[in-house]
Amino acid sequence: MIYLDNGATSYPKPAQVLRSTVEALKNFSFNSGRGGYRQSVKAAEKIYQVREKVSGMFSCEPQNIVFTKNCTEALNIAIKGSVKKGSHVIISSLEHNAVWRVVSKLKEQGIIDFDIADFDYDDDVCVSNFESFIRENTDLIVCMTASNVFGVAFPVRRLAALAHRYSVRFIADAAQTAGIMPVGIESDGADIICAPGHKCLYAQMGTGFMASAKNIKLDTLIQGGTGSASLSASQPSEPPERFEAGTLNNSGIISLGAGIDFINNRGMENIYGHEMRLARFLYDGINQSPNTRLYVPRPENGKSAPIIAFNMDGKSSESVAASLAAHDIAVRAGYHCSALAHSFFKTLDTGVVRLCPSVFTTQRDCEVFLNTLKKL
Amino acid sequence: MIYLDNGATSYPKPAQVLRSTVEALKNFSFNSGRGGYRQSVKAAEKIYQVREKVSGMFSCEPQNIVFTKNCTEALNIAIKGSVKKGSHVIISSLEHNAVWRVVSKLKEQGIIDFDIADFDYDDDVCVSNFESFIRENTDLIVCMTASNVFGVAFPVRRLAALAHRYSVRFIADAAQTAGIMPVGIESDGADIICAPGHKCLYAQMGTGFMASAKNIKLDTLIQGGTGSASLSASQPSEPPERFEAGTLNNSGIISLGAGIDFINNRGMENIYGHEMRLARFLYDGINQSPNTRLYVPRPENGKSAPIIAFNMDGKSSESVAASLAAHDIAVRAGYHCSALAHSFFKTLDTGVVRLCPSVFTTQRDCEVFLNTLKKL
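ok -> structure tokens follow
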């Protein structure tokens, strides 16, 4: 199989991620923070080490890393915990349904109102598009680091600075870039970063996290046992326990630590450089193929995630993906859970075919893909 | 290690659970229901097979099995999705914080009010305790199948029948019994059953589910991408997608299928019989030890989960657990995230030491425990 659906989840996982999972199931599958016996304490230490690794990559404090089941849960915690009745929220015109459906639900419940700021290739215009919607009751800006469909990146640091000029909270959805493009709480000024563990961080599926700045106050989405302050009817006041009710996914979290080790060993810049070279190779090849359509400029480092969206004239994106699947090439077609992005790029009728290389994708894989595409 | 903390999470996991996890990471870690390529379709089929296995055990339809990260998330979805402003809720006097903190939060938000019905060993009295709190605006009864601290079981079928006589919804928290004591949607009349995968069902940590009856309408707790109806601002109307936003924990879910296979092969009755024999052996041994205190009658089949709570006079539960840990015996001390249960059994000052055998616990393990206890 030639796997170009790493935007959904990365495959394969690095060998050390598989090894760490098995080790976790055998040696660290004890309820951390609840038991006083050696194995429980060791499991808790192992989980804390992963908090340190994640916080190192996203420049915040370990205790401000909250483990979730996926990026979607992290975004739900972050967004719902940040608003109050009457809040105004701004999101981008390319947001994933994990943001759009959340703010739509909050609006339907009569809690918030929201506006949608258009993406622009010109950072000045993009920032100004967000600024134009800021009003007195704006409490929150939520923006992805890069589009999960078209790859284009947002000027996160400038948007965070804009938000802070108006005392507005800024949440970055780093679903498609965490692990390949640097973004951090302290380094870039985001108040909260949400990310999956199983995409560019190479952990098991079932993993994600919310990283937050110090002193960020959030209401809780889920309540339950935390192994602490057990006699209280309320969640503890401090992260991570405040947001981690119930038993954690130890093996998933430990695999995330192994994924981060893998990235740190290879070098995030090297991985990104490799994937972007392949992305440009794919882009150029598609551009030169007959009857193809691309939607955004050639991906440049720093301005895009390694994601290519295209269509073939006269064919549905699904039929192109099905033809590729018949040649054992795995890509995803359709809407990619991103109605807004398709509305913005006028691909609501067709969806798009999406290609996402990973560190394990080779030039040869991309050549096979392009040769196959030409014969469709 | 002698592991008697299976009430926190079961250890070890059966060999087939470990094998299935590794197989899942290698062969089924693709985004199910999102891709059209063979591997994605196969992953989706594998996930569906687990829905069938879970629904077989809990007597409902496969599409009404919603996979969650733990039992706590399932309870949050079920409880919050069931109430509206002005609802009245009844919970038991032994509920875990995963229920108590949820209803306390809803009360604090001004959405619901709730009452606490006392447990009783006499089923007639117990049912009548719940009935006495039912009023016109009672929309929900939430009750555990058995106490996670003291093991005593509730008459779930009768409580479900009571609820339905008053057109009230009934949610069963099967955290400590799912996999050892039968409970089902169609067989017992519960509207919703919530359970963890990683306790008596022997799956990885990071797993849980909500099983529900047909036509149960629930609001959503988490919104996001579902791989379906992507152009809609709302979650799909039907389970499981409605409640499964974001990427699923494929390897965790597949390990749950392996755990259920393991139980079905051994026979749930045989496993329960084994664990209850050990529970009674532990109970009798503790009862005969000097300076010990037990809180509930000797556990009888059908009236209790295989859980023993005790204390030693003049020692904190934590110090007893620490002494046992020094002998490589793993038990849990303290409150077990269950303030209500400690209030009911008057153990708020001390907490308790809790013992939970599993299918892998041997008579010899229990003998070593009892011999060690006598020397403390």
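Chain A is about 40% helix and 15% strand.
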